[in-house]
Request: fold
Amino acid sequence: NYSFYGCNSLTGLTIPSDVTSFGSYAFYNCSKMIQINIPDGVKSIPSYCFYGWSSLAELHLPEGLASLGDYALYNSMQTWKYELPESVISIGNNCFSRIVNIIVPSLDLVTISSSSFGGTGVFIFVPESMVDKYKHRTNWSNYQFQIFSISQYRNKEDYTMLTEGSAYMGSSVKWSACNLDASSPEQYGGY
Reply:
């Protein structure tokens, strides 16, 4: 726990491949961190582990990762996309925040809390055959208007970063990121 807590001068870190776990708050508020590798043997990212990484541009989550704790990736503001490995089975409270695309490739329903994805501008992409199942599953139904098929996902080049809250207020939203029809936003929950 608290290994690199608040190390604001740390910008990158290579973790040895034999590391299999991190403690809670291990990298909490390392706000200048722009790069880290997470070894394949890590099965869980505990609560607050990568909280407040405001400079992080990309984070590869290793195959074999099973759970993401409460606030594990909260306020990692520069990261615009997370691809969850198929091995993820649970996501804690407020794990993700801000405006972000989350790709969930699993054909098994992932367990989430009622607030796993924070509340602002999260777009969740799941396998086409699972869209309705995710939209109607306990806690996932809180995000039913933000769940889309992976086939609707576009590359970053097509993605316009939304301003905080714009997904709810409709200000300057570019729907091409999700391949949606912006002329009738009410069909997507009034965005």
The radius of gyration is 16 Å. Residues 131-135 form the longest helix (5 residues). The chain has two helices and ten strands. Helices lie at 131-135, 166-169.
